[in-house]
Amino acid sequence: MTYSTLMVQLELEHQNDARLRVAGDLAEQFGAKLIGIAACEQSTPLYYADGAFAQGLAEQDRVELERRLAETEERFRAAAKGRAQTVEWRSALASPTNYVAQQARAADLIITGTNRDGWALDPARRLDPSALVMQVGRPVFFVPPEAEWLKLGTVLVAWKDTREARRAVWDAIPLLQRAQEITIAEVPEGGEGPETARNRAHDVAAWLARHGVAADVLVPEAVDNASERLELIASDLGADLVVAGAYGHTRLGEWMFGGVTRDLVTRSTRCSVFAH
Fold first, then answer.
1. Cα(117)–Cα(115) distance, integer angstroms
2. Average pLDDT, whole number, for the chain?
């Protein structure tokens, strides 16, 4: 298995250096095509503006956004030069989340950044990571701003016996096949004993072995906060990458991540791969 086409989502208002470095590393690792993508919706005219004045404000906003999209494309092409076999750029004056989710049909893996701002996002200007993972139908690789390059030395698979986790591990096989050490960890929940969880994790390890991936199994005692325990496990292992299913729920019509997923996307300094 491999990734033949990668897509890296870029922001107009924030630094993209970390995700561009990791996207370039991934493109080199897999000999992949790299698509850069960015989008931003125009601002709504001021409520007291109308007629020609409102039209003028809208035109100024459009020109400014197109200028910034062009600058972002230039930075993408400069960063990708010599690193990807083929480079392509896509952009639009549109909702960032919806546009990336639609265009993801052209890629095997979507690369974006972690969200240090919590959930207070302007959906017209910033990509919503939870909504993207739920909509995109592709694995999403999150890059924290601290990342200096792609590291696949130690990978933690945060296992849970769910559809989302199965999807995430399958989608991450090309990465797992290049990792040096892999640990499958399941934190028992709901009063369940560790032996049942251990049997499940060993099933996953045996399945991965048939794909040429050797993995250890780690099942701690049951705890109340699985997110904190997984973070401790990741720290103890020195994990460079966490692979996990994305779990969420709707609130007021918007997707919100559950605890483990939310912490990995907003707080962790490690790269992570999610699928839903």
1. 5
2. 87
Single out the residue in 143, 163, 186 at which a domain terminates.
143
Tokens representing 62?
Answer: 């459009």
Indicate the DSSP class of residue 2: -
Tell me which residue of 28, 18, 16 sits closest to 76, measured CA to CA.
16
Region of 190 on the Ramachandran plot (φ > 0 left; ψ -120 to 50 alpha; else beta): left
- CB of 201 within 8 A of CB of 161? no
Give the mean pLDDT of 163-182: 96
Chain segment 56-86, per-residue pLDDT in tens: 667 787 889 999 999 999 999 999 999 998 9
Pick from 117, 143, 169: which residue ends a domain? 143
∠ CA 5-127-73, nearest 5°, is: 55
In a domain, 149, yes or no: no
| C-alpha distance across the termini of the chain, in Å | 20
Task: Answer yes or no: pTM beyond 0.85.
Answer: yes
The strand pair at 271-275 and 241-245 is best described as parallel
| Residue bearing tokens 């910033």 | 126
CA distances from 1 to 26, 74, 113, 133, 213 (A): 14, 31, 25, 22, 12
Structural domain total, the chain: 2
Domain ranges, residue 91: 5-143
Q: Are residue 129 and residue 164 in the same domain, yes or no?
A: no
